[in-house]
Specification:
- With about 375 residues, this protein is an all-alpha fold.
- The chain has one domain.
- The chain contains 15 helices and two strands.
- The protein has a two-stranded antiparallel ribbon with strand order 1-2.
- The longest helix is centred in the middle third of the chain and has 47 residues.
- It is globular.
Length: about 375
């Protein structure tokens, strides 16, 4: 256990700032074009996979009672990311259409990399911020999500995913044997609807209609429209097209991670629409050091669902007795997810072993595989 005073040191927090090192890669791609536009995806997927293999695992846990004041350097990187991303994204939307040295495919390649940043880092940081009670942090989360036209993710994640993870009501829990290419369009179709209905249901319980001004969807639509208008002002329809393209890439990155985090893991149905409480065993855990630095401990997902209000530096990791372990970090696992036969070969035996270990009493898994159990009450 790492003590609170040790956790508070700047030297402990600095590795989590490596996301800022991706920004110069985008600028290099914009300045030089050619093969340099591929630096961002190559770095985030392949370089971090190699560094993970060399750096090994980090199984140390910080003292979960560490106070907010001692987490300043960790919180700061999440607070400054929104303005950094805004300047990078809209600066490039203005610059790229005017850059004579960048051809069409180079522009596409560059904004593919930008989408990797806004998805891998931006949405991930928004995820950390949306879980906080501080109004500034929640607004920053909304700004980051609006830049990728996925604002409803906040409502879906907080009101649906965390409450119903591992049950048929959660669209984001990937079903056993469901390939990513089936999962992705299903999630895009279902998540917006589930988020909107969750917010409408909250308002209805207070005697208010869905169109009440308290519905955050009004804010979501206003922010997204504002960013779309800004792209049009900066570079016309080409600017808007670049903004939309990077958003598609970002959402694809997010849902790849969502797919990996809960694939095949379901909560036991206790009968009558009741399900067991969420436990660390209901999310895949990973300890790869470098990727956890880049993704601010997102791979410690088992603890995040068990204790959603913990800030990222205090998330705990678990061993195999308490949570299922991914064989590799997220960069490798998300690449494997894009090839369903490879994914099934790697993960299906692990899901079956998880079922045998934690739920030997369940002999009929077909309702769990097809999300056909009764909806939770």
């Amino acid at each position: 256990m790492i003590g609170s005073n040790e956790v508070a040191k700047l030297s402990r927090a600095l590795p989590f700032w490596m996301s800022l090192g991706l920004v110069p890669l985008a600028l290099i791609g914009a300045a030089y074009g050619g093969w340099t536009v591929l630096l961002l995806p190559v770095c985030t997927w392949y370089l971090f996979s190699i560094v993970d293999a060399l750096a090994g695992l980090n199984k140390e846990n910080a003292d979960p009672q560490t106070g907010e004041a001692q987490l300043f350097w960790y919180r700061l990187v999440t607070l400054i990311w929104a303005p950094v991303q805004f300047l990078l994204l809209f600066g490039l939307i203005w610059y790229v259409p005017r850059a004579a040295h960048l051809g069409g495919w180079e522009s596409v390649g560059l904004f593919f990399g930008v989408g990797v940043i806004t998805g891998t880092i931006g949405i991930n940081y928004s995820h950390e911020l949306m879980h906080q009670r501080n109004r500034v942090e929640r607004w920053l989360a909304d700004l980051l999500l609006a830049m990728v036209f996925y604002s409803h993710f906040r409502s879906e994640h907080l009101l649906v995913h965390h409450r119903y993870v591992g049950t048929p009501r959660d669209p984001v829990t990937a079903r056993y044997n469901e390939g990513f290419h089936r999962f992705f369009p299903r999630v895009l179709r279902q998540c917006w609807s589930s988020a909107f209905h969750a917010e409408a249901a909250m308002l209805a319980r207070k005697g208010r209609p869905w169109w009440d001004r308290k519905n955050p969807f009004w804010r979501y639509w206003a922010l997204q429209s504002g960013f779309a208008a800004l792209a049009l002002i900066l570079s016309g329809w080409e600017g808007l097209a670049l903004l939309v393209f990077q958003a598609l890439v970002a959402v694809w990155q997010l849902e790849l991670v969502n797919y990996v985090e809960h694939y095949g893991l379901t909560r036991k149905h206790l009968g009558g629409g009741k399900y067991e409480h969420v436990l660390p065993r209901h999310s895949w855990n990973a300890c790869q050091k470098a990727t956890n630095w880049l993704l601010i401990n997102l791979q410690r997902h088992s603890d995040h669902h068990y204790k959603p209000d913990r800030r990222f530096p205090l998330l705990q990791t678990y061993d195999e007795d308490e949570a299922p372990q991914l064989p590799f970090g997220y960069p490798v696992m998300t690449m494997a997810a894009m090839v369903p036969p490879v994914w099934r070969r790697v993960m299906n035996p692990r899901v079956r072993a998880w079922r045998k270990r934690y739920y030997p009493e369940i002999t009929e898994w077909r309702p769990y595989n097809k999300a056909a159990n009764p909806l939770p009450r």
